[in-house]
Specification:
The chain has a single domain (3-198, 248-266), classed as NADP-dependent oxidoreductase domain (TIM Barrel, Alpha-Beta Barrel), CATH 3.20.20.100. Helix content is 42%, strand content 17%. It contains 13 helices and 12 strands. An 8-stranded parallel barrel has the order 3-4-5-8-9-10-11-12, surrounded by 6 helices. The radius of gyration is 18 Å and the shape is globular. The model has no long low-confidence stretch (mean pLDDT 95).
């Protein structure tokens, strides 16, 4: 699988990474996750991203692949907790959260520790950044990052404190391509695209039951991209290639519970970028249709 240098870090990351939210929220069992993640590593994936907020995700990841720790880069997030039911942005709370994550992940360090969508106000106050810097200085994280969107993401880039930015980029979330992404690229930051296929919100042809996907569903109904009207795999492949080959994107995080998905996704990435005229068409349609309030989805 194609490898890319993650910004100014020394990490050579696979173009595809594993997103741990789905296994945590879907109630996946240990055996299934063991198969899923070990096949992903065997297929060449080397980025695994989780969060303290993703319920059982970190624990499942630790049990499944901690014995292969030297084969992948491990990222997690702190601040948001317990399925996003609460948060703790205090200095001490962030340190506790990160240390608990290390225990669940069965490791002494993570490659990137990220703030999980805290506000611009908290970033400007500085205590949350100092907590991550303390973790880095103590050897519990190699790099520090911010995961979030919109004005907070822009400030995270501009303040110069972070090595990486994880933010929403997809056919249904393109505002960042005109605002934050160019700034991150100029500053040499590592960029991690979350939700790179917009949760495949169009996949059933009906409005998803999960309200988490409604914003993307509604946007895609208005954008009405022709390639989403055909076979689902072809549409998802086009959506993924659009995101993963955007200038400045280093890795796209994809969540799944299907062990076969990694070989399929690797084959999609191997196809390379979409034809330039298709990318231009997707971008032109966005500029024509997108409303000003179609901002990044947290």
């Amino acid at each position: 699988m194609e490898k890319r240098k993650l910004g100014k870090t020394v990490m050579q990351v696979s173009a595809l990474g594993f997103g741990g939210a789905e296994i945590g929220f879907s109630g996946s069992d240990e055996k299934a996750v063991h198969t899923l993640l070990n096949r992903a590593l065997d297929a060449g994936l080397n980025v695994v991203d989780s969060a303290a907020a993703y319920l059982t995700s970190e624990e499942l990841i630790g049990k499944a692949i901690s014995h292969r720790r030297g084969e992948f880069y491990l990222l997690t997030k702190c601040g948001a907790l317990d399925g996003f039911s609460r948060s703790d942005w205090s200095y001490a709370g962030l340190i506790r959260s990160a240390e608990a994550s290390l225990q669940r992940l069965r490791t002494d360090y993570v490659d990137v520790i990220q703030l999980h969508s805290c506000s611009e106000e908290l970033l400007r106050a500085g205590e949350v950044i100092r907590a991550l810097q303390k973790l880095r200085d103590a050897g519990k994280a190699r790099y520090i990052g911010y995961s979030g969107d919109n004005s907070a993401a822009k400030y995270a880039v501009e303040c110069g404190a972070f090595d990486t930015l994880q933010t929403s980029i997809s056919i249904a979330d393109q505002r960042v391509l005109e605002t934050v992404l160019p700034l991150a690229h100029e500053r040499g930051m590592g960029v991690i695209a979350k939700r790179p296929i917009a949760n495949a919100a169009w996949r059933t042809g009906k409005k998803p039951q999960n309200s988490y996907h409604h914003a993307y569903w509604e946007r895609l109904q208005k954008l009405d991209y022709g390639f989403l009207h055909g076979e689902l795999k072809a549409g998802a492949a086009a959506a993924l290639r659009f995101t993963i080959f955007q200038p400045g994107v280093h890795v796209a995080i994809v969540g799944t519970t299907n062990p076969e998905r990694w070989a399929e996704n690797a084959a999609i990435v191997a196809q390379g970028p979409l034809p330039p005229e298709q990318v231009s068409g997707i971008r032109a349609r966005w500029r024509e249709i997108a409303r000003q309030d179609w901002v990044g989805q947290e």
